[in-house]
Write a structure and sequence with these properties.
This protein is mainly beta. Helix content is 4%, strand content 50%. The chain contains two helices and 29 strands. The strands form seven sheets. Strands 1, 13, 14, 15 and 16 form a five-stranded antiparallel sheet that branches. A four-stranded antiparallel sheet has the order 4-3-2-29. It has a four-stranded antiparallel sheet with strand order 5-6-7-8. The longest helix has 9 residues.
Amino acid sequence: MYLKMKNLKFIYTLLLAMTVTGFTSCEKDNEPDNPYEGEVLNGAFILNQGTYQMNNAGLAYFSTDKSDSPLISDLFFDANNFKLGDNATDIATYKGNIYISVTGSNCIYKLNEKGEVTASVLFHTDTELQGGVRYMAFKDDCLYASFYGGIVAKLSADDLHVESKLNTGGSNLEGIAECNGTLYVADSYQYVYDPVSGNSDIVYSDKLYMIDPKTFTVKGEINVAVNPNKLISADGKLFLISWGNYADKGYSFQMIEPSQNNKVTELGVATDMGIGNGKVYLLNSVTDWTTWTTTNTWFSYDIKASKIENVSFMANAPAELTTDHISMISVDNISGDIYIGTTRYTLGNGEVFRFAKDGAFKTNFDCGGQNPIGAVFL
């Protein structure tokens, strides 16, 4: 389907600033105090995306043990003497290491448990990868990264050197996940020039590409709801949120079952999700962009019971979570705690709300940066 460029996807993209620019960093001037200097850190590592062209992406650290000084606002800066870069996109862990992809700066960092960079890779000089890195998945000591431009790159998870590149035939790739030995990657949209109007229109995709990691070839496609984006694997299934076309097709929450010949089931309407404790925690956020008024509806999907639970998973949620702009839902795989991030976009730092596995509210705190988009736990 063809649509003009003025649509909510571009408003959202502008606000969360997922666009490509040059790599930037800055020297460290006045070194902030790091209360955990030299320690191996165990807790929540929160990725702040930052704001377009401001070089202010960051990695915050929240300790669940030290109530007197629980937060380091920018652990990455403190540990490495330079900034993370422009517009972080994804954070993941593999074999005790932390990996961060940064779209604007077009790079990936590998960090140890202290937040120190142990490997990094820049993609600017590779003409096939200049569209910008997006999301990451892991399989057999390899990191697989999706890129704008339709490429999936295979890197060594150890030193991040690029081993191979695969042109999927898609255009702007988003979420990527491994499930039952196969990689799945979402193809979101492409620009198409209309010579009659002279405008660049958008064609939204409805494809997930399946990749065999052993041969590193595309082995098939799956038709899903239009404009697929966030993709997560859990319990032998894939869960996907498509963003729709901002006209007659809206957001869609879907499940793909590889064991059932990749059967696709639409389960409801959701704008964001996080997975843990045997559930998919879901949000449907509706915003009136003329007034910036947001209404959030919270619910969940029980994976084992195959059932939507149309009640909030939070027992005593602060009132802000019914109207604030939500940018993150992440679950601690160790404790089961649920972390929900809110964003003020360019108006100030975001905030994180922490809930116990049973939904009881624990605490909330300034996340140390703008636009928190994900968290991992060690």
